[in-house]
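W.,

You were right to be curious about this one. When I first looked at the sequence I had no strong expectations either way, so I just let the prediction run and decided to look at it fresh. Below is the sequence, 110 residues in total, followed by the output.
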Amino acid sequence: MDLVLEVTERDELTDAALRRIGDDEYMPDEERAHARAAVREDEAEALAYLVEPFQLVGEVPGVELVQASWSSEQAAYDPDVDAWLVDDDDDFDDDDRDDSDADGSGADRQ
């Protein structure tokens, strides 16, 4: 599963992450200082302090979270670039369809 997010309000995201870090009573002071600096520099770090992967999938039937990891990259969104199309992993693809079954109904199969 991949999630693509656009940070529309960087200051709001950063402020929320800083509040979460400040409210964490179990975080050692040295780690807190490092976390605050990281959140101020990188939106992905801020998001990592606010989103709990288990909360995203913990209630989904038939799914068990085994491992969660974060990676991020800056990307300039260009709607004219095919790489931004969401359906690149669809199970049904025109290339997978039998040529004799042009309308996908299965009516041409014998």
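Here's what jumped out at me. DSSP finds four helices and no strands in the chain. And, maybe more interesting for your project: The two ends are 38 Å apart (CA to CA).

Coffee later to discuss?

I.
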